[in-house]
From TrEMBL:
InterPro entries: Sig_transdc_resp-reg_C-effctor, Tscrpt_reg_LuxR_C, WH-like_DNA-bd_sf
Any one GO molecular function term: DNA binding
GO BP annotations, alphabetical order: regulation of DNA-templated transcription
Domain HTH luxR-type, residue spans: 288-345
Sections of the chain in a coiled coil: none
Record keywords, A-Z: DNA-binding
Protein name per Swiss-Prot or TrEMBL: DNA-binding CsgD family transcriptional regulator
Length: 353
């Protein structure tokens, strides 16, 4: 039963196997966990499969304020008669609902972890239940439930952090891949999976190998990862995968020391890929800063790291014309010079578009 308790944090519904085993072992009509996590507006109410809906609802309601379940001392087993005051109409309603669901008595224990959660583990049933034995089992299970709930709390916190991080990566059009020494994919973020579907510059090759479309980039990537496999203090390396749309990769060495059973990763690759083409970005610059199309093309070229002379040559402009355009661009974008222009464009709402 302890295995079911610890594995219950990975089940949906939570702890369903454990509660079913507890109900069967005690002979109770229903076994429940009512979980109140810090900061949650709603309590999590869990019950064994065969529990009467009326009994489950009553046991869940009984753990809410202002009823005396909140005053239960942690680690002590309480009988139903200790918790329901027959003079209180609310308590009488709970008792009536329990009886209608086949529960004439119950045993419950409170497990707490300050700042994290309050939980109530209970069994309810009718005649024939060995309540002293049930109470002894609840006392024995209490510390293990606290440990399982701490694991659950940690998993939920990490799940929330992962959600926030994933949203940031999504907004930045960024994802990550871990690679082994042969450039085979060990693990990949959901954002990177989407990026692979959208672009032709990177793909999953044979044996799940990360394969750039460019043979030159493929050789460069292979050499870098091979170097990372030989030493873990190599400096990060950047690779441009595409100019239009702009897709860049940053490679860092890593040592995978986890016990996950996967192949060991030697490198992590962060890939930032623009979803839109250069033409689309120029159109956005026209709308955002009221640039002329010719000015927008020059502004985008400068934002990609070109000097004014290089941008003029790439766009077929004279250097004098490019300098004239640049002055207009600086004025319209509120930039004091070329570095400021790059910052204004790359940190504008275009980054989130």
């Amino acid at each position: 039963m302890l295995n079911a308790l610890y594995e219950g944090v990975f089940e949906q519904p939570l702890w369903s196997g454990f509660l079913n085993q507890l109900r069967a072992r005690t002979g109770a009509a229903v076994a429940t966990i009512n979980l109140d996590t810090e900061g949650d507006a709603d309590m999590i109410n869990l019950a064994s499969d065969n529990g009467s809906p009326l009994a489950v609802r009553a046991l869940a309601d009984s753990a809410r304020d202002p009823r005396p379940f909140r005053q239960m001392r942690a680690g002590r087993v309480y009988a139903l008669a200790e918790l329901l005051d027959p003079r209180d109409p609310r308590h009488r309603a709970i008792g009536d609902t329990m009886k209608a669901g086949g529960v004439i008595d119950s045993r419950s224990i409170r497990v707490t972890d300050p700042g994290r959660f309050d939980a109530w583990l209970g069994c309810g049933g009718g005649d024939g239940v060995n309540w002293p034995s049930v109470g002894a089992q609840l006392v024995e299970l209490g510390p293990h439930l606290r440990t399982a709930l701490r694991l659950f709390s940690t998993l939920e916190r990490e799940r929330f952090r992962t959600t926030v991080a994933s949203d940031a990566f999504r907004r930045l059009n960024m994802g990550w891949i871990t690679l082994d020494a042969r450039c085979q994919i060990v693990d990949i973020s959901p954002e990177m999976e989407l990026l692979l579907q959208r672009t032709a510059v990177l793909r999953r090759g044979r044996y799940d190998r990360l394969t750039p479309a460019s043979s030159q980039v493929d050789r460069e990537l292979t050499a870098i990862v091979k170097g990372f496999a030989q030493t873990d203090d190599a400096p990060p390396r950047a690779i441009n995968l595409s100019r239009d749309p702009l897709i860049n990769m940053l490679l860092r060495p890593m040592r995978d020391t986890s016990l996950s059973g996967q192949r060991p990763a030697v490198a992590v690759a962060y890939v930032s890929g623009d979803r839109l083409s250069e033409a689309d970005r120029c159109d956005q610059l026209v709308d955002l800063f009221q640039l002329l199309p010719s000015e927008a093309r020059l502004a985008w070229a400068i934002a990609q790291g070109m000097s004014i002379a290089q941008a003029a040559d790439a766009l077929g402009l004279t250097l004098e014309t490019a300098r004239t355009y640049s002055k207009r661009i600086y004025a319209k974008t509120g930039s004091s010079g070329q570095p400021d222009l790059v910052r204004n464009i790359l940190t504008s709402v275009l980054a989130l578009a």
